[in-house]
């Protein structure tokens, strides 16, 4: 029997005054949830504290910390270190901020000389002990920052993209990047090789499978694709007549140990597909039944996140709220 994505809303979290662009569970058990918003703040929640509570009480119970006073522009990306002691955030500032989770203070700011010249749209940790921070930008470059060095300049830069780098992921010695130029690039840093897959439509999100033998790719033609990593062959395309990704940077993810692909949509719903069969199994309304969301930008579900372990997942977007499902 194919695993089924949980579709019961167990918590609805507020705390932001603008659209939520970034969402990620903590590493390991995924007990905590981090969100980044157009309101220039980052919130840390323990969603389990909100279960069974109404929205305002749920937020008060679940909200652990707000990280503010650093970003001057919207937050577009958040990534958490594997030991959960640090995270990075980035966005319209053209700067990457390295945070200490417990003190809510920034440890490093990667900006200035040699930094990005456009907004930073994606980030990731890499290297031994997560000692390297990697960032992709509207300026079409990917830059590597050494967190152990006091040097301000990036230690490496990739500039093959011809348009904005919208997403990136790290697996061992390989770096995956997705660009608005319609190409997914896989850099094998150990072998010094670059593999490029041309999709045509602009890429908004990439997620490698747990084994990194294939990758989930979202594009601005209302399609989510699963590509074979070895040769770039299309394994499966996920679509639905109502599914819409045409104008906004929409994120997708893999859930239930890569058995289910999920994606936000511009129509206010989250869509889920069985990875093997390609069947659309769920069309879940992100906004509550009582929601009066009207403007298109507020309807957009721009980001989804899944626990590494367990079946819980979350969605967020233009209405500024986070829905946790279980």
Describe the protein's architecture and organization.
4% of the residues lie in helices and 47% in strands. The protein contains two helices and 28 strands. The strands form seven sheets. Strands 1-28-27-26 form a four-stranded antiparallel sheet. The longest helix has 8 residues, at 55-62. The protein is globular and about 50 Å long. Mean pLDDT is 94; it is low at 289-294.
SSE inventory with pairings:
Elements: E1 9-13, E2 20-25, E3 33-37, E4 42-45, H1 55-62, E5 63-67, E6 75-80, E7 86-91, E8 96-100, E9 105-110, E10 120-126, E11 132-137, E12 142-146, E13 156-158, E14 165-171, E15 174-179, E16 183-188, E17 193-198, E18 203-208, E19 214-219, E20 223-228, E21 234-238, E22 252-255, E23 260-263, E24 269-274, E25 280-285, H2 296-299, E26 301-306, E27 313-317, E28 322-325
Antiparallel strand pairs: 1-28, 2-3, 3-4, 4-5, 6-7, 7-8, 8-9, 10-11, 11-12, 12-13, 14-15, 15-16, 16-17, 18-19, 19-20, 20-21, 22-23, 23-24, 24-25, 26-27, 27-28
Structural features:
single chain; 326 residues; mainly beta; four-stranded antiparallel β-sheet; 28 strands
Give the strand tally: 28
Q: Within the largest sheet, what's the order of strands?
A: 1-28-27-26
Give the helix/strand class: mainly beta
Give the radius of gyration: 18 Å
Mean pLDDT over the full residue set: 94
Major sheet description: 4 strands, antiparallel
Number of helical segments?
2
The share of residues in extended strands comes to over 45%
Q: What are the secondary-structure elements, in order, as H or E?
A: EEEEHEEEEEEEEEEEEEEEEEEEEEHEEE
